[in-house]
Records
---
Amino acid sequence: MSGHSKWATIKHAKGLADAKRGKIFTKFIKEISIAARMGGGDPNSNPRLRTVIIKARAANMPKDNIERAIKKGTGEDGATAYEELVYEGYAAGGVAVMVEVLTDNKNRAAADVRNIFNKNGGNLGVAGSVSRMFQRKGTIEYDAEKVSEDEVMEVALEAGADDIVNEDGIITVTTSADAFASVADALNAKGFESLSADVGMVPDMYSPVDADTAVKVAKLINRLEDNDDVQNVYSNVEYPDDFDPEAAE
């Protein structure tokens, strides 16, 4: 399994778990609201908002929820002032971790993130210590049994995708961050139903860990993802093949 496909599959498994669906929708509401506040409520003229809406729809977020989040951001339905923050650090085994935060209380978020790192075998680093190991990319996943790889490849490449990989029953389309929305739109226009669609930080190289270290890394990531201020967590961990990160609670 390639690095990008592995990253996307893990994010899909984590992000779309039914038990966490409500929390995921809450995070999307915040992200949609701030995108609308910064660039306006029209996704056609606000690329950031358009990208978030594509991600939210791929996670089956109801249309009404999306529209209410946009109104919050544009001030039609009340708005909360959120700050965007990024924390960088290391988990057990030297695994690189990036944490994206949207918060209405910077001090609380900083204390919470630091506490989670400290209590789960990690440590925060300085700005730039980890981000240099990642690139922002888009990934769109499809069930290989439900769509044609050749058709997906033809449409995706024509729309500007960087790569298409078919492994373990998952077709993963990789794009630059800028090309994500146009590639997703082109694939959606052909009626292809995605398993997930996301723009995030993809590591240049992965860091394999043994079973014991995998448990420590997964616990740290799970605790971070459970925090209400945390929007996204990215790492370069490569878990053992038989390891389930969601089981490390």
---
Amino acid sequence: MRFFSLIKLPVVLVLSGLLSACGFHLRGEYSVPEELHTMSFNSYDEYSPLTRSVHAQLELNKVDLVAPSKNIPNLYLVSAELEERTLSLYQNSRAAEKELTYVVKYRVTIPELGAKNFMTVVTRNYLDNPLTALAKSVERDVIEDEMRQQAAAQIMRQLGRVRAEYEADTAVNASKKTTL
């Protein structure tokens, strides 16, 4: 058995070296554009769990957060809403399965390019058993926390392509001007 453990370590080291050499990045690693490496961050509620999640994601992606200024890009969380919809019913007409939809609206302002509004949506389903109400309320809280984490991760992914969004809008506006 000792022979196999001696072989495993070098194999793991060689494989990890090869993966890192080819540019492979673990999931959750998003490249924020260069113009957004220093930015300000504001929210509709400075103490909400979503604000804390987005702030943690920004720090994780090595974004320097500074005070708002005219020449600094800004990320502003406009709103966050949790909507609930009944998907199925028990025989006694109580909700059996529910769908939660978490909608986050935010605005990214880049000084030379202007402001652009974005939206991210996270949807989850869960079973609602009225006989285990306490356990289901705890489960729902956990699901809502996971949805906030997913929304914050989606915001980071969308920030990674914000430059392309601005350039696409500029190209569309330019083509509209040339056709007029």
---
Amino acid sequence: MYTIGEVAKMLRISTHTLRYYEKEKIIIPVRDASGDRRYNDSHIKWLQFVIKLKETQMPIAKIRKYASLALEGDHTTTERLNLLEEHKHSIQEQIRTLKAADEMLEYKISAYKDFISKQD
């Protein structure tokens, strides 16, 4: 079991973020006898997944919805699958947008380099 500070350091997030995720019912840590939060390996894996969802721009409301469905059990599998497929589509759109921006930047960089080399 890990403390909130250990988990924050391990995952490179703040303790505030962990408390926020708890408040939003995205994660439910175990409480020890003195009421301190404790996290196990399955909590860590779940948080790693949540962090990836956030990094790929999934709104917190959708992450909360996914977490809620997961807690409800197996009868929500189809709905969870739909949420993830929708998010995957969003990520693919982000990738296309980033690739187009990268190509445009590469063109501009190349043009500047050509211009500068002709000035020498």
---
Amino acid sequence: MTGLSTHVLDAVSGAPAVGVEVSLQDASGTQLAAGTTDSDGRITQVNPKTLVPGIYHLVFDTGNWFADNDIKGFYPEIDICFEIDDPARHHHVPILLSPFAYSTYRGS
């Protein structure tokens, strides 16, 4: 399986973060794709096209998600910059989210 997926988990409740808007941008800031996390906090295929090697950004609209869930948060947006080096490989970029912290890693 190739492509790009993401998952957002609300680390405070241990539940999926449903309804987080996410955009995929290239290094110049041009939006390539966008989506919203589903009932499991996932977007299984962020981009409809194969990504060529290069620098990309996944931008998570956490400010609106916090507001919609009546949470006072510190990060209105999370911009994860990463590099695709092998377009034949699947890339997964998950976020563990809380109001005053977040973490990410290269998933599988």
